[in-house]
Design brief:
CATH topology of the largest domain: Heat Shock Protein 90
Organism: Actinoplanes awajinensis subsp. mycoplanecinus
Number of helices: 9
Distance between the termini: 39 Å
Mean pLDDT: 90
Radius of gyration: 19 Å
Strand content: 25-35%
Helix content: 25-40%
Keywords: Kinase, Serine/threonine-protein kinase, Transferase
Largest sheet: 7 strands, mixed
Protein name: Histidine kinase/HSP90-like ATPase domain-containing protein
CATH architecture of the largest domain: 2-Layer Sandwich
Strand order of the largest sheet: 1-2-11-12-10-9-8
Number of strands: 12
Shape: globular
Structural class: alpha/beta
Low-confidence stretches: none
CATH superfamily of the largest domain: Histidine kinase-like ATPase, C-terminal domain
C-alpha cells in the first residue's frame, strides 16, 4: 500500500518497512523514521509523507535518518524541499533532521535552505530543543468508547469556538468531531482523546484512538444510497468542508485530524 493516499485535501498515512510515522497529538510533534537505501521510490514516498505531515500543521516534524543509506547525499534535495514547503504551507512548523549521514550534511551545508534546517543528534535531543507550542488555544478530553462520547466532544468544540470567537465554525467543527469520535467508538472500540487547538490560521481538530487501521473513504457509486449514508457519508462530508484532513499513525494507534481555515471570519 502507498504510504500516503487520498485526494488533494486528504492525507491518509500508513507505515511501511521504509517509512515509520508517529504523531503525538498532545505536543503537535510528528516523528518520521526513514530506512533503507535512498533511491527514486523512497524519495517519492518520503516527499509524499512529508507533505502529509506538514499538512496537519504540526509544531515540528522530526526525521530520524539513522537507518538511511545515502552515500551520495542525494536526499538533501528532498529535505530542502520539505523545509520550503513547511515555510510556505505551515508557518511556524519546523523540520528537524536527526543522525544525518555525513554526505547528506555536506550537501545541506551547500544550500541556503539546507543550512536553515534544524539538526540534532537524536530524537530526544530534538524534542528537548523544541519550545512549547505557540498555539493560541489547546484543550483535550479523554473519552471512553461510548456512544455519548460524541456529544461530549461537541461540547468541547462549543467551548473552543465561543472562546476563540468563531461562531461560524462551530457547526462544521462539531460535525467533523462527531464523525471522528463516532468512528473511533464504532471501529476502534478503545478509549480515545479528542483535541481542539488554534494553530496559526487554522482550527485543528483531532481524535486519537488505539486502533492502527486508517479511515476508509467509501465510493458512493458502489453502494445504494441508504448503505452509503450508513457506512461512509460522514467522512465524505468531512472531506467536503475541511481545509485538509487525514490520518497519521501514533505510538498506540492513530490520530485522525482535520483543519478549518479561520482567517476569513
Amino acid at each position: 500500500m502507498e504510504p500516503v493516499t487520498g485526494a488533494d485535501n486528504t492525507f491518509l498515512v500508513v507505515n511501511t518497512t521504509q517509512l515509520v510515522v508517529s504523531n503525538d497529538v498532545a505536543t503537535g510533534v510528528t516523528e518520521v523514521r526513514v530506512r533503507g537505501r535512498w533511491g527514486g521510490e523512497l524519495r517519492a514516498a518520503t516527499a509524499r509523507a512529508l507533505r502529509a505531515c506538514f499538512a496537519e500543521s504540526p509544531q515540528a516534524v522530526i526525521v530520524d535518518l539513522a537507518q538511511l543509506s545515502d552515500p551520495d547525499g542525494d536526499s538533501a534535495a528532498t529535505w530542502c524541499t520539505g523545509h520550503r514547503f513547511a515555510a510556505s504551507r505551515s508557518p511556524g512548523s519546523v523540520l528537524v533532521l536527526c543522525e544525518t549521514p555525513a554526505a547528506v550534511l555536506h550537501r545541506l551545508q551547500g544550500a541556503p535552505s539546507g543550512r536553515a534546517i534544524g539538526l540534532a543528534m537524536s530524537i530526544p535531543q530534538a524534542r528537548a530543543r523544541l519550545h512549547r507550542p505557540a498555539w493560541a488555544y489547546h484543550e483535550h478530553l479523554d473519552l471512553p468508547a461510548h456512544p455519548d462520547s460524541a456529544r461530549r466532544a461537541r461540547l468541547l468544540i462549543d467551548d473552543a469556538c465561543q472562546l476563540l470567537r468563531l461562531p461560524r465554525h462551530r457547526g462544521p467543527a462539531q460535525l467533523i468531531m462527531s464523525e471522528f469520535v463516532a468512528n473511533a467508538v464504532r471501529h476502534a472500540g478503545s478509549d480515545l482523546r479528542a483535541a481542539v487547538s488554534s494553530r496559526g490560521g487554522y482550527l485543528h481538530l483531532a481524535v486519537q484512538d488505539q486502533h492502527a487501521a486508517m479511515p476508509q473513504l467509501i465510493d458512493p457509486y458502489r453502494y445504494p444510497p441508504a448503505a452509503f449514508i450508513e457506512r461512509g457519508a460522514g467522512l465524505r462530508f468531512v472531506q467536503a468542508i475541511a481545509h485538509a484532513w487525514g490520518s497519521l499513525p501514533s505510538r498506540a494507534g492513530k490520530v485522525v485530524w482535520a483543519t478549518l481555515a479561520v482567517d476569513a471570519r
